[in-house]
Amino acid sequence: MYDKKVAIVIKNDLLDWQKLNVVSFLASSIAIRFPETHGQDFVTADNVKFLPFLKHPILVYKAETAEKLQRAFQRSKNRELAIGIYTKSLFDTRSGEENVLEIAKYRADDLNLVGIIIYGENKKVDKALDGLKFHE
Asked: How does 44-61 read in b/e, with b if 16+ C-beta sit within 10 Å?
């Protein structure tokens, strides 16, 4: 079993395409920052290589309200977990550079979060997300 966990919390009132977009971007942040999460290439019997997955399952939770998402965010910060963020305003940006400039406009506690990803010790992740349910 794994001693660490990857979990994503998504604001439940997003449109389906927005949820998928947020999950994709957030999952990439863990892959970029933590090489130890990388799996191995998939190689077929005829030696065709395919990209690897993350080694850890990614658990996706829903936050019914902005307050519940903010609570998970604060609890994750308090437990010193690795956190990735996605804010509502990022739906209107068109590049990585615009994303960075947009986030820089706000203090951490003033971000209009629509999704977060956290990575860390299993028990700390579980406590940070206490009370949230899995996304259907």
From this structure: eeeeeeeeeebebebbbb
Residue 26 and residue 115 in contact, taking contact as beta carbons nearer than 8 Å: yes
Q: Say how many C-beta atoms besides its own lie within 10 A of residue 116's C-beta.
A: 29
Over the stretch 41-65, which tens digit does the pLDDT of each residue have?
Answer: 999 999 999 999 999 889 999 999 9
Give percent of the chain above pLDDT 70: 100
Distance CA 74, CA 131 (A): 14
Concatenate the DSSP letters of all residues of 25-91 into one string. Answer: HHHHHHHHH-GGGB-PPEE-TT--EEPPPBSS-EEEEEESSHHHHHHHHHHHHHTT-EEEEEEGGGG
How far apart CA 29 and CA 54 sit, in angstroms, is 11
This prediction's pTM: 0.93
Q: How far is CA 87 from CA 40, 49, 51, 56, in A?
A: 31, 35, 28, 24
